[in-house]
Amino acid sequence: MGMNVASSSGGGGRRSRRKPVMAEINVTPMVDVMLVLLIIFMVSAPLLTVGVPLDLPQTQAKSLEQNDQKPIQMSVDIKGKVFIADAEIAINELIPKLKAITDARGGLEERIYLRADKKADYGTVAKVMGLLSGAGFKKLALVTEADQG
User: Transmembrane ranges (predicted)?
Assistant: First the structure.
């Protein structure tokens, strides 16, 4: 049997020149992750608004000051349906449900934002506002969009 004998000039068979260390960062995986996150946020951002789709009227009124606590969101859609957040509620159950919510949160001093479609029946919106006022809710605000022109 034969043996392979490698002749080297010392160093136990290692080369005297080493390969330089690569100091570059591969950004391709980071770009891929960022693009996926961008797509996720673009899809989910419209879903973060209140769930009832409304065409709000436009005004030139100034916006209200925001408190630390999130206000109760109510909506009246074009068909006259009343919602608390995104849950539809019958108009005769409105005040008992709101009182239960506000008792848990802060009483009748709780701020209520009423969003109504600009083509919604004026009578339904007035009826909801009258019920809220008659029940003792004092902090009621109508939500509109800023006038574009």
Answer: 33-54
